[in-house]
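pasting for ref. prot 1 ->
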Amino acid sequence: MAELFPGYLTQFYLGPSGSGAPWHYHTTAINTLAYGRKRWFLTPPELSQYSTQHPAAWFEQEYAQADAKPLECIQEAGDLLVVPSMWGHATINIETSIGMAFEFTFLE
Protein backbone atom coordinates (compact mmCIF):
# COMPACT_ATOMS: atom_id res chain seq x y z
CA MET A 1 0.00 0.00 0.00
CA ALA A 2 1.27 3.49 -0.85
CA GLU A 3 2.04 5.93 1.94
CA LEU A 4 1.01 9.58 1.72
CA PHE A 5 3.84 12.10 1.95
CA PRO A 6 2.24 15.11 3.70
CA GLY A 7 3.11 18.76 3.12
CA TYR A 8 4.56 18.32 -0.35
CA LEU A 9 3.35 21.76 -1.48
CA THR A 10 0.77 24.13 -0.04
CA GLN A 11 -0.49 27.18 -1.92
CA PHE A 12 -2.75 30.03 -0.83
CA TYR A 13 -4.52 31.94 -3.57
CA LEU A 14 -6.54 35.13 -3.81
CA GLY A 15 -7.70 36.57 -7.11
CA PRO A 16 -10.31 38.92 -8.54
CA SER A 17 -12.99 38.01 -11.04
CA GLY A 18 -11.41 37.21 -14.43
CA SER A 19 -8.06 36.12 -13.00
CA GLY A 20 -6.98 32.50 -12.92
CA ALA A 21 -4.30 29.96 -13.68
CA PRO A 22 -3.09 29.05 -17.21
CA TRP A 23 -2.91 25.45 -18.40
CA HIS A 24 -0.53 23.32 -16.34
CA TYR A 25 -0.23 19.94 -14.60
CA HIS A 26 1.48 18.43 -11.56
CA THR A 27 1.04 15.73 -8.94
CA THR A 28 -2.34 15.05 -7.31
CA ALA A 29 -3.85 18.15 -5.70
CA ILE A 30 -6.74 18.93 -3.40
CA ASN A 31 -8.16 22.38 -4.09
CA THR A 32 -10.35 24.10 -1.51
CA LEU A 33 -12.37 27.23 -2.13
CA ALA A 34 -13.26 29.29 0.94
CA TYR A 35 -14.83 32.22 -0.90
CA GLY A 36 -16.06 32.93 -4.43
CA ARG A 37 -16.68 30.86 -7.55
CA LYS A 38 -14.13 29.34 -9.93
CA ARG A 39 -14.50 27.70 -13.37
CA TRP A 40 -12.25 24.70 -13.95
CA PHE A 41 -11.14 23.19 -17.28
CA LEU A 42 -9.54 19.72 -17.13
CA THR A 43 -7.88 17.33 -19.60
CA PRO A 44 -6.52 13.79 -19.11
CA PRO A 45 -2.73 13.32 -18.84
CA GLU A 46 -2.22 12.53 -22.53
CA LEU A 47 -3.57 16.02 -23.40
CA SER A 48 -1.86 17.93 -20.57
CA GLN A 49 0.18 20.98 -21.48
CA TYR A 50 1.85 24.04 -20.01
CA SER A 51 0.89 27.49 -21.22
CA THR A 52 1.74 31.07 -20.33
CA GLN A 53 -1.38 32.40 -22.04
CA HIS A 54 -3.86 33.99 -19.61
CA PRO A 55 -6.79 31.57 -19.23
CA ALA A 56 -9.37 34.25 -20.09
CA ALA A 57 -7.50 34.96 -23.35
CA TRP A 58 -7.36 31.21 -24.12
CA PHE A 59 -11.10 30.98 -23.48
CA GLU A 60 -11.90 33.94 -25.75
CA GLN A 61 -9.50 32.99 -28.56
CA GLU A 62 -9.33 29.19 -28.64
CA TYR A 63 -12.13 27.56 -26.66
CA ALA A 64 -14.91 27.97 -29.25
CA GLN A 65 -12.74 26.57 -32.08
CA ALA A 66 -11.46 23.55 -30.14
CA ASP A 67 -12.46 20.20 -31.66
CA ALA A 68 -12.39 18.45 -28.30
CA LYS A 69 -13.60 20.47 -25.35
CA PRO A 70 -12.02 19.95 -21.91
CA LEU A 71 -14.06 18.70 -18.99
CA GLU A 72 -15.53 21.61 -17.03
CA CYS A 73 -17.00 22.33 -13.64
CA ILE A 74 -17.81 25.27 -11.41
CA GLN A 75 -16.32 25.22 -7.92
CA GLU A 76 -18.40 27.04 -5.31
CA ALA A 77 -17.27 28.29 -1.89
CA GLY A 78 -16.99 25.29 0.42
CA ASP A 79 -16.33 22.82 -2.42
CA LEU A 80 -13.25 20.62 -2.50
CA LEU A 81 -11.91 19.57 -5.91
CA VAL A 82 -9.35 16.80 -6.40
CA VAL A 83 -7.24 16.98 -9.57
CA PRO A 84 -5.54 13.62 -10.26
CA SER A 85 -1.83 13.46 -10.94
CA MET A 86 -0.72 14.83 -14.33
CA TRP A 87 -4.22 15.96 -15.34
CA GLY A 88 -4.05 19.26 -17.20
CA HIS A 89 -6.10 22.10 -15.79
CA ALA A 90 -6.74 25.82 -16.06
CA THR A 91 -9.01 28.06 -14.02
CA ILE A 92 -10.89 31.34 -14.36
CA ASN A 93 -12.31 33.05 -11.29
CA ILE A 94 -15.97 33.87 -11.85
CA GLU A 95 -15.95 35.99 -8.69
CA THR A 96 -13.19 37.09 -6.36
CA SER A 97 -11.87 33.79 -5.02
CA ILE A 98 -9.91 32.79 -1.94
CA GLY A 99 -8.67 29.27 -1.25
CA MET A 100 -5.83 26.83 -0.76
CA ALA A 101 -4.37 24.00 -2.78
CA PHE A 102 -2.40 21.04 -1.46
CA GLU A 103 -0.23 19.04 -3.88
CA PHE A 104 1.03 15.67 -2.73
CA THR A 105 2.56 12.46 -3.96
CA PHE A 106 2.53 8.86 -2.82
CA LEU A 107 5.68 7.03 -1.76
CA GLU A 108 6.07 3.36 -2.67
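and prot 2 ->
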Amino acid sequence: MKQSNLKFTNPIVTHLVFDINSQYDRESTAPIQNSFSVEISKSDDENEAIVQLSILIGKKEFTTEEPFCIDMTIGAKFKWDNVYDEKTLQELLSKNAPALLLGYARPIIANITDAGPIPAYHLPFYNFIDD
Protein backbone atom coordinates (compact mmCIF):
# COMPACT_ATOMS: atom_id res chain seq x y z
CA MET A 1 0.00 0.00 0.00
CA LYS A 2 1.22 3.49 -0.80
CA GLN A 3 0.59 6.66 1.19
CA SER A 4 -1.56 9.21 -0.61
CA ASN A 5 -0.18 12.55 -1.80
CA LEU A 6 -3.46 14.13 -0.71
CA LYS A 7 -3.04 15.60 2.78
CA PHE A 8 -5.57 17.37 4.97
CA THR A 9 -5.79 19.44 8.14
CA ASN A 10 -7.82 18.36 11.14
CA PRO A 11 -11.49 18.65 10.17
CA ILE A 12 -13.48 21.30 12.02
CA VAL A 13 -17.19 21.75 12.54
CA THR A 14 -18.18 25.18 11.27
CA HIS A 15 -21.95 24.89 11.71
CA LEU A 16 -24.10 22.70 13.94
CA VAL A 17 -27.79 22.87 14.83
CA PHE A 18 -29.54 20.06 16.72
CA ASP A 19 -33.30 20.34 17.18
CA ILE A 20 -35.43 17.79 19.02
CA ASN A 21 -38.96 17.29 17.71
CA SER A 22 -41.30 17.49 20.70
CA GLN A 23 -44.15 16.18 18.50
CA TYR A 24 -42.29 13.01 17.50
CA ASP A 25 -44.43 9.87 17.47
CA ARG A 26 -42.22 7.22 19.09
CA GLU A 27 -44.24 4.54 17.29
CA SER A 28 -43.13 5.90 13.90
CA THR A 29 -41.06 3.53 11.77
CA ALA A 30 -40.27 6.05 9.02
CA PRO A 31 -36.57 6.10 8.12
CA ILE A 32 -34.63 9.26 8.87
CA GLN A 33 -33.72 11.12 5.69
CA ASN A 34 -30.12 12.21 5.17
CA SER A 35 -28.86 14.60 2.53
CA PHE A 36 -25.41 15.94 1.73
CA SER A 37 -23.87 18.75 -0.26
CA VAL A 38 -20.21 19.44 -0.96
CA GLU A 39 -18.55 22.82 -1.43
CA ILE A 40 -15.02 23.00 -2.84
CA SER A 41 -13.06 26.26 -2.68
CA LYS A 42 -9.91 25.64 -4.68
CA SER A 43 -6.93 28.00 -4.47
CA ASP A 44 -5.89 29.53 -7.81
CA ASP A 45 -2.21 29.79 -6.98
CA GLU A 46 -1.51 26.87 -4.62
CA ASN A 47 -2.22 23.16 -4.58
CA GLU A 48 -4.87 23.36 -1.90
CA ALA A 49 -8.61 23.52 -1.46
CA ILE A 50 -11.07 23.83 1.38
CA VAL A 51 -13.73 21.13 1.18
CA GLN A 52 -16.88 21.46 3.26
CA LEU A 53 -19.48 18.76 3.70
CA SER A 54 -22.96 19.93 4.70
CA ILE A 55 -25.11 17.26 6.28
CA LEU A 56 -28.85 17.47 6.88
CA ILE A 57 -30.35 14.67 8.94
CA GLY A 58 -34.13 14.70 9.16
CA LYS A 59 -36.21 17.62 7.97
CA LYS A 60 -36.14 21.21 9.16
CA GLU A 61 -39.92 21.30 8.97
CA PHE A 62 -40.97 18.63 11.47
CA THR A 63 -43.77 16.16 11.06
CA THR A 64 -44.50 13.52 13.69
CA GLU A 65 -42.12 11.11 11.91
CA GLU A 66 -38.79 12.88 12.54
CA PRO A 67 -37.29 12.53 16.01
CA PHE A 68 -34.80 15.35 15.41
CA CYS A 69 -33.02 17.47 12.84
CA ILE A 70 -29.27 17.97 12.58
CA ASP A 71 -27.87 20.60 10.24
CA MET A 72 -24.07 20.33 10.27
CA THR A 73 -21.11 21.52 8.21
CA ILE A 74 -17.65 20.04 8.64
CA GLY A 75 -14.62 20.93 6.57
CA ALA A 76 -10.87 20.70 6.15
CA LYS A 77 -8.09 22.10 4.02
CA PHE A 78 -6.71 19.58 1.52
CA LYS A 79 -3.25 19.88 -0.04
CA TRP A 80 -1.51 17.85 -2.73
CA ASP A 81 1.67 17.65 -4.76
CA ASN A 82 1.70 18.15 -8.53
CA VAL A 83 1.11 14.45 -9.11
CA TYR A 84 -2.58 14.53 -10.07
CA ASP A 85 -4.18 15.43 -13.36
CA GLU A 86 -7.24 17.70 -13.15
CA LYS A 87 -9.77 14.86 -13.53
CA THR A 88 -8.20 12.79 -10.76
CA LEU A 89 -7.94 15.82 -8.51
CA GLN A 90 -11.61 16.66 -9.03
CA GLU A 91 -12.56 13.08 -8.11
CA LEU A 92 -10.43 13.22 -4.96
CA LEU A 93 -11.92 16.52 -3.83
CA SER A 94 -15.55 15.76 -4.73
CA LYS A 95 -15.70 12.08 -3.71
CA ASN A 96 -12.83 11.04 -1.42
CA ALA A 97 -12.71 14.23 0.66
CA PRO A 98 -16.43 14.19 1.59
CA ALA A 99 -16.24 10.48 2.44
CA LEU A 100 -13.33 11.23 4.76
CA LEU A 101 -15.18 14.17 6.36
CA LEU A 102 -18.25 12.00 6.89
CA GLY A 103 -16.10 9.62 8.92
CA TYR A 104 -15.22 12.49 11.26
CA ALA A 105 -18.85 13.67 11.47
CA ARG A 106 -20.27 10.24 12.30
CA PRO A 107 -19.14 10.04 15.98
CA ILE A 108 -20.06 13.70 16.58
CA ILE A 109 -23.60 12.99 15.42
CA ALA A 110 -23.81 9.82 17.53
CA ASN A 111 -22.64 11.70 20.64
CA ILE A 112 -25.03 14.61 20.12
CA THR A 113 -28.08 12.41 19.61
CA ASP A 114 -27.10 10.18 22.52
CA ALA A 115 -27.25 13.26 24.78
CA GLY A 116 -30.90 13.80 23.82
CA PRO A 117 -34.06 11.89 24.76
CA ILE A 118 -33.68 9.40 21.90
CA PRO A 119 -31.18 6.60 21.26
CA ALA A 120 -27.89 7.53 19.57
CA TYR A 121 -28.21 7.87 15.81
CA HIS A 122 -25.45 6.15 13.87
CA LEU A 123 -25.18 7.71 10.43
CA PRO A 124 -24.93 4.97 7.79
CA PHE A 125 -22.03 4.73 5.38
CA TYR A 126 -22.57 6.45 2.03
CA ASN A 127 -21.00 5.93 -1.37
CA PHE A 128 -20.12 9.36 -2.76
CA ILE A 129 -19.13 7.82 -6.10
CA ASP A 130 -22.74 6.97 -6.97
CA ASP A 131 -24.53 10.32 -7.14
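The chain has a mean pLDDT of 92.
The helical segments are 86-114.
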